[in-house]
Amino acid sequence: MKAHPIAARAMRMGITLLVVAVAVFFMVRLSGDPITIMAGPDADPLQIERMRERWGLDRPLHEQLVTFLGGILQGEFGYSIATGMPAGELFLERLPSTVILGLSSLALSIAIGLPLGIIAALRHNSALDRFVMSMSVMAFSMPNFFLGILFILFFSLHLRWLPSFGSGSFLHLILPVMTLGLSSAGAIARFARSCMLDVLNQPYMLAARARGIRPQRRTILHALPNASIPLVTILGMRLGDLVAGAIIVETVFAWPGIGRLLAESVIRRDLAVVQIIVLATATTMVLANLAVDIAYGWLDPRLRKS
């Protein structure tokens, strides 16, 4: 892929992140006054005013916005009102747990969803195809929190095989990964089946079949490479959704990641922490989209000029 399309996409990425930064700045301030919540209903008005002055919340909004954007450019994201710690420090402290959970669930969803989608396409309209698609729809449609609660009831309370919360060992990771992974696996299976069916009906696949090429060879050398381009889209979306998709699951399983930190920070109106997490989520999404665009050019040379 040429350099200038990537540069144009990188510029659009920067503009998108700027818009997100401004939007989240105003939205978190419209949600309520963090100083009033932190001080309590019986706090002295003079004390509240001093706290606002300490955190810079007494200044006009446009001045706060300039300070906020200038801090981002310098790698400074402010301090947590609830703990007094740098927001960046709190974010980095929770980041490894979310990365482990997100990548593990993504690997599980690919390992389950991709083969099932391909098999369903190769056995189109069979009983196996209908069964796989039924299970996929159920997994995709079921809310994460409900699926997580079912896993807790069955594997933790009934069978007592796995812990239901925390992160003390590898066993604590299994239920959250299953909850996130199975939901994504359903979506990947449906998308993989649709992509494979579209490719299998193309003239060049029919010609390969007429030439007597074995089914395994047709699938691996002809169908999969051509079906991989649209599949990259959904895989990129799942990769970009690592933080946002884990919020509910981390809360259900008390997993000490960024999603749970975001939920806690929203309740406490912890402005700096909410801002950095939302910005990190947006950055993950736009980087995933940029990676998908680059992967398109690598997979299909015809797209490199666009």
Automatic annotation (TrEMBL):
<keyword id="KW-0472">Membrane</keyword>
<keyword id="KW-1003">Cell membrane</keyword>
<feature type="transmembrane region" description="Helical">
    <location>
        <begin position="274"/>
        <end position="299"/>
    </location>
</feature>
<dbReference type="InterPro" id="IPR035906">
    <property type="entry name" value="MetI-like_sf"/>
</dbReference>
<feature type="transmembrane region" description="Helical">
    <location>
        <begin position="219"/>
        <end position="237"/>
    </location>
</feature>
<dbReference type="GO" id="GO:0005886">
    <property type="term" value="C:plasma membrane"/>
</dbReference>
<dbReference type="InterPro" id="IPR045621">
    <property type="entry name" value="BPD_transp_1_N"/>
</dbReference>
<dbReference type="InterPro" id="IPR000515">
    <property type="entry name" value="MetI-like"/>
</dbReference>
<keyword id="KW-0813">Transport</keyword>
<keyword id="KW-1133">Transmembrane helix</keyword>
<comment type="similarity">
    <text>Belongs to the binding-protein-dependent transport system permease family.</text>
</comment>
<feature type="transmembrane region" description="Helical">
    <location>
        <begin position="243"/>
        <end position="262"/>
    </location>
</feature>
<feature type="domain" description="ABC transmembrane type-1">
    <location>
        <begin position="95"/>
        <end position="296"/>
    </location>
</feature>
<feature type="transmembrane region" description="Helical">
    <location>
        <begin position="134"/>
        <end position="157"/>
    </location>
</feature>
<keyword id="KW-0812">Transmembrane</keyword>
<feature type="transmembrane region" description="Helical">
    <location>
        <begin position="169"/>
        <end position="192"/>
    </location>
</feature>
<protein>
    <submittedName>
        <fullName>Binding-protein-dependent transport systems inner membrane component</fullName>
    </submittedName>
</protein>
<dbReference type="Pfam" id="PF00528">
    <property type="entry name" value="BPD_transp_1"/>
</dbReference>
<dbReference type="Pfam" id="PF19300">
    <property type="entry name" value="BPD_transp_1_N"/>
</dbReference>
<dbReference type="GO" id="GO:0071916">
    <property type="term" value="F:dipeptide transmembrane transporter activity"/>
</dbReference>
<feature type="transmembrane region" description="Helical">
    <location>
        <begin position="99"/>
        <end position="122"/>
    </location>
</feature>
